[in-house]
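Subject: sequence -> structure tokens, single chain

Hey, anyone have a minute? Need the predicted structure for the following. Not urgent.
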Amino acid sequence: MQAWIISKRRLLIGVLVGMISGYIYYKFVGCSSGSCAITSNPVNSILYFGLIGGLMGDMLKKNQTIKNTNHE
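Reply:
Had a minute. Here:
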């Protein structure tokens, strides 16, 4: 379990930062009319921003080179 957490730390940090950002966005910007699908509800805002943060954090992986084993 600990090895999985270490290997996915950028993803998990991205999700955590995104969720915190989602709550902050809901709290200070939000949607006063209630017609906004994402920002009118704190749960929707937190989940959406967590997803976006996870995707952004996952993009920060180091590039891995793939060795070509086919020798022609």
